Amino acid sequence: MLFLQFLFLDVLLPGSNNAHVVEEHISWYLIQISSYANQSWVQNLGSAWLGELQTHGWDSESGTIIFLHTWSRSNFSNEELVDMQVLFHVYFAGLTQEVQNYASQFQFKCPFYLQVRAGCELHSGKSSKGFLHAAFNGSDFLSFQNASWVPAPQGGSRAQKVCDLLNPYKGIKEIAYNLIRNMCPRFVLGLLDAGKMDLQRQVRPEVWLSSSPILESGQLLLICHISAFYPKPIWVMWMRGEREQRGTKQDDILPHADGTWYLRVTLNVSAEEAAGLSCRVRHSSLGDQDIILYWGHGLSVTLITLVVVVLLVLLIVPVLWYKKRCSYQGIS
Ligand SMILES: *[C@@H]1O[C@H](CO)[C@@H](O)[C@H](O)[C@H]1NC(C)=O
Ligand SMILES: *[C@@H]1O[C@H](CO)[C@@H](O)[C@H](O)[C@H]1NC(C)=O
Ligand SMILES: *[C@@H]1O[C@H](CO)[C@@H](O)[C@H](O)[C@H]1NC(C)=O
Ligand SMILES: *[C@@H]1O[C@H](CO)[C@@H](O)[C@H](O)[C@H]1NC(C)=O
Ligand SMILES: *[C@@H]1O[C@H](CO)[C@@H](O)[C@H](O)[C@H]1NC(C)=O
Fold first, then answer.
1. What's the domain range around 112?
2. Do 181 and 238 share a domain, yes or no?
3. Are residues 104 and 210 in the same domain?
4. Torsion angle, CA of 103/104/106/109, rounded to 10 degrees?
5. What percent of the chain has pLDDT over 90?
6. How far is the CA of 277 from the centre of ligand 5 (A)?
7. Does the bond joining 255 to the residue before it have cis omega, within 30 degrees of 0?
8. Whether residue 227 is found in the same domain as residue 117
9. CATH of the domain at 47
10. How far apart are CA 201 and CA 196, in angstroms?
């Protein structure tokens, strides 16, 4: 189980004390979003996620699981996968039916929507924890704990009544328990193993700098762009020599469509102070070779290019002029 050690390893980015990025657990979960627009129109969306990576979709028309990666089948047999598919199909149909049946009794007035998040969390000690939470119209409604349905405080008496209705059904509780406590951890272990090539890949970031125009206040916003890196943990800082610049601001890390990540890290400085600053990037794909880009170098490259172009023009124009003159003289 080497791959697990990798996943649960502290991704120790060398050379910095505050750059420890710890990934000590991983969760896999199903997300359900059901919209009830009116008495006759219901939409069920389903998907499955490994951390922040989507692994499965759900085709509600045909009632089939969409496997998004070659490794999305984990190590389950076709038979087991078909059983799961049937289970979800029956669940969606049954839930829709029951919600519509009980809508008036529980004052679920359309339009409303339900969200369910269910799955398991695996820890480095190889222990696992199952969870199932449901929300009504965006606020916590109930959860499944210790093999029974427990209302959320925000759910009020309505959530209590729904739990009272659900709790006597032992069969449903057994299925839910089995899914999140037994099937889920087994599926995740298989998934991590089957997908290790993808999940453990290392993609080096592309880094470039830009800036806002100088503001009236004489301030400049320096922007360090870090793009297309994988995995997600990364450390980026604006530096002056070895000194970290405390005004460094990090935006949210955003996903690219191919599963890699993009990040923007900015620093607000006065225009005179910008020279000599650098953006420093540490990432597991780089080993201990940080990427360091200096502000101002971009400018001098432009300057050099400009100078070269001017020199070329100065050289070429006389040559052309001379040639033209020669040929003119040649003809005459
Ligand atoms: C129900 O909602 C859907 C989607 O908003 C709409 O297309 C449909 O006309 C509605 N039906 C009724 C009976 O209101
Ligand atoms: C749920 O939210 C919708 C708006 O998003 C609102 O129209 C509807 O009345 C809410 N339903 C309940 C039962 O609170
Ligand atoms: C779960 O149930 C067991 C036995 O029924 C009980 O000992 C334990 O305290 C319960 N845990 C929670 C969090 O309710
Ligand atoms: C799949 O892999 C997991 C973890 O390696 C293992 O526990 C399980 O028995 C394997 N087979 C099935 C069918 O789940
Ligand atoms: C940068 O600093 C100046 C002056 O302190 C301030 O006016 C400006 O809003 C700041 N810009 C950003 C993007 O923080």
1. 2-199
2. no
3. no
4. 70
5. 68
6. 18
7. no
8. no
9. 3.30.500.10
10. 8
